[in-house]
Amino acid sequence: MKRSLFFLLFVCISASFALAQTRSRSGPALKNDKPASQRGSVPDVPPPSPAEMAAQKKAEEAQRKAEEEVVRVETNLVTTPVSVLDRQGRFIAGLKKKDFKILEDGVPQAITYFQSSEQPFTVVLMIDTSPSTRYHIDEIHYAAVTFVNQLRPADQVMVVAFDSRLKILSEPTTEKQKLYAAIYKAQFGSGTSLYDAVDYITNLDLVNVPGRKAVVMFTDGVDTTSRRASYETTVAAVEEIDALFYPIRYNTQRRGDANSAGMYALQLPSGMSVQLGRGQSDAEYQLGKTYLETLAGNSGGRIFEADTSTNLEASFAGVAEELRRQYSIGYYASTEHKPGDRKRIKIQVVRPARAVIRAKSTYVVKEKEEPTDAAASSPSRLQSE
User: Residue 158 and residue 362: Cα distance in Å, rounded?
Assistant: First the structure.
């Protein structure tokens, strides 16, 4: 009997010890922990990988673009800036839409867009620093500063200089002190890549966005070193942008050199002659003058002869007034447009009589471009105006 009790006590002690060892191996229970049977059968989902997140974002972007395309509307609204002046060159204000008529290739068009409010503008000053202007560089500096002085606080100016290369001296700014400093940084170099410089300007974003824009050029118009662009390509490029060109032409031809060359040519053996260097002949200077006149005429601007303009300050004040207060007219072309077509525009005013109208005379139809969100708040263009 004693042996049985002793054996039973031993078994109980052994069982208690084994149970305590099992609990110590399983570790302490966590707060609010549930048995595995009560935790649910769905395993934890790992976060998406970077590749999966990129694919999801791309799909969402594609869906957003598809939704936007549903509400986009393409138009062929053609707009052009217009200045109306009296015979003394003063801007005529107060005209209404009914005072204008517009024709495209001789066909009357219905004016559907008209704006006449005064607005700030952006100007690019192009300063020729080629060797031919070295005797006029001080005059050019003075003329450029004089133009800047005509601007109001909200008007922006960008300053570039060009010889064989183009240099940006100031990004668009309204700070006149920065502009003065940039203008006086323009010092003459070598070569004249005028066509390349004009090509660069016509491809700037600031001349291809809505708003009033102009390019004021201080140059003799003679090109000697352009490689990428030509007379023809730049004339066409100016027709395709919404900016007025105002060349200030300096006659830098040195007659003394030409006469001297002629005298020396008389002393050479028969059959030999002296040829003037590139950019010094009468023909090249006449071509340069025609080039500047074409840029001004096709864009709706004006050309000024620096040598004969007795009061550049008054002329520049008139230009600034034109830019700030010009009219903007638009129409939906009633004729079919094909990319590459050149269209001729003619604008007339019913009153006053004998008014001088300055506006684009042609534009080139370009390929349709994808509309942007900004286009929703402004009239679309055919890159022409």
Answer: 26
